[in-house]
């Protein structure tokens, strides 16, 4: 049996394109022979560390991004829609407390990233589908509750999110992304022959497939046959 190919996914819930990349990779990791490692990090730190500027501050890019996100959300079947005030959500409130919380959940979880996946998805849903807050402790707790976390785990995660250990872990993950050459999220890193191959954005899946030795058809197959979690959730009301 061949060992699974490892792909790291660096993301931040403040990034809508990260949500698209996250959902697509979560769906077809079961189609490809890969191990997906979720790497929550802080996009603000990556932007500052790389000297990059958010696309939202360039009027033409912002106009394009608005249309592009709508098309991509429909294509990938992700219930993404812009909040009423994207600038306040992304640049004034930000995601530092949310990403520290996700990091704290990951620190507690043993034997996989199931809880991290579910919590991240619920935080994206709050900010990029329901236009709700993700900065207050009550907001984080509500998202975690919907993700299926117990009250005890939520309490511990909220407490440890403010600790030096968790702050340093998030900083380390952010710096690791920068060391790979990140300038934004999502960032996919595939290690081939001891050398990292990086892919930025949510529109490079075919190139990633080629790099890891998968056929393009397997990418299309996964999109059309692997159930979207949002369709199942819709049936639940």
TrEMBL record:
Keywords recorded for this protein, A-Z: Transferase
Keyword RNA-binding: no
Pfam families associated with the record: DSBA
Reactions that this protein is recorded to catalyse: RX + glutathione = an S-substituted glutathione + a halide anion + H(+)
GO biological process: glutathione metabolic process
Organism domain of life: Eukaryota
Sequence ranges assigned to domain DSBA-like thioredoxin in this UniProt record: 6-211
GO molecular function, one term: glutathione transferase activity
Keyword set includes Transferase: yes
EC number: 2.5.1.18
Active site: 15 (nucleophile)
Top-rank EC class of the record's enzyme: transferase
Annotated GO CC locations: mitochondrion; peroxisome
InterPro entries, A to Z: DSBA-like_thioredoxin_dom, GST_Kappa/NadH, GSTK, HCCAis_GSTk, Thioredoxin-like_sf
Family (UniProt): Belongs to the GST superfamily. Kappa family.
Protein name: Glutathione S-transferase kappa
Species this chain originates from: Takifugu rubripes
């Amino acid at each position: 049996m061949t060992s699974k190919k490892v792909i790291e996914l660096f993301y931040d819930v403040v990034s809508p394109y990260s949500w698209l990349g996250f959902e697509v990779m979560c769906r077809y990791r079961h189609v490809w022979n890969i191990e997906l490692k979720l790497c929550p990090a802080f996009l603000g730190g990556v932007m500052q560390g790389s000297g990059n500027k958010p696309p939202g501050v360039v009027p033409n890019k912002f106009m394009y991004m608005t249309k592009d996100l709508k098309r991509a959300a429909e294509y990938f079947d992700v219930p993404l829609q812009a909040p009423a005030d994207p600038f306040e959500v992304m640049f004034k409130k930000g995601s530092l407390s949310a990403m520290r919380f996700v990091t704290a959940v990951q620190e507690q979880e043993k034997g996989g990233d199931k809880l991290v996946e579910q919590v991240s998805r619920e935080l994206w849903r709050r900010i990029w589908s329901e236009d709700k807050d993700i900065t207050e402790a009550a907001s984080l707790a509500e998202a975690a509750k919907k993700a299926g976390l117990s009250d005890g785990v939520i309490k511990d995660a909220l407490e440890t999110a403010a600790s030096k250990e968790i702050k340093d872990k998030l900083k380390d993950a952010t710096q690791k992304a920068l060391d790979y050459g990140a300038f934004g999220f999502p960032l996919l890193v595939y290690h081939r022959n001891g050398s990292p191959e990086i892919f930025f954005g949510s529109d490079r899946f075919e190139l990633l497939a080629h790099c890891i030795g998968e056929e393009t058809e397997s990418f299309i197959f996964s999109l059309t046959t692997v159930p979207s979690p949002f369709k199942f959730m819709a049936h639940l009301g």
